[in-house]
Amino acid sequence: AAIIDQDIDHIVSIAAEALNNLANASERLGRTEEAIPLYEQAMAAKPAFAEAPNNLANVLVRLGRVDEAIG
User: Fold this and answer.
1) Most distant pair of Cα atoms in the chain: their distance
2) Which end of the chain is more exposed for a tag (fewer CB within 10 A), N or C?
3) What is the DSSP-derived secondary structure letter of residue 15?
4) Are the C-beta atoms of 12 and 42 separated by less than 8 Å?
5) Nearest Cα residue to 16 out of 64, 58, 57, 48
6) What is the DSSP code (8-state) at residue 46?
7) How far apart are CA 20 and CA 39, in angstroms?
8) For residue 14, what pLDDT band results from cuts at 50, 70 and 90?
9) Which distant-in-sequence residues (6+ apart) come within 8 Å of 32 by Cβ?
């Protein structure tokens, strides 16, 4: 069971990173609004994945949504 748990955790980590990367790509393509739910999905998949909330906050600040970024 421990091996399965490790495998699941690894898959979830990969999914969170993939969602974060997709959000980053969306931003680079000028599709900033589309990046927001992708960052949120990455955060939901792996709450300990620090890059996604940081990136989400940066996007929200750039959009002038500072209250959301710090909330």
Assistant:
1) 46
2) N
3) H
4) no
5) 48
6) -
7) 6
8) very high
9) 26, 59, 62, 63
SS3 letters for the chain?
CHHHHHHHHHHHHHHHHHHHHHHHHHHHCCCHHHHHHHHHHHHHHCCCCCHHHHHHHHHHHHCCCHHHHHC
What's the gap between Cα 5 and its chain centre? 22
Q: How many CB atoms lie within 10 A of CB 63?
A: 13
Chain centre distance of CA 18? 9
Write the pLDDT tens digit of every residue in 53-66.
999 999 999 999 99
pLDDT digits (tens, 9 = 90+) for 16-68: 999 999 999 999 999 999 999 999 999 999 999 999 999 999 999 999 999 99
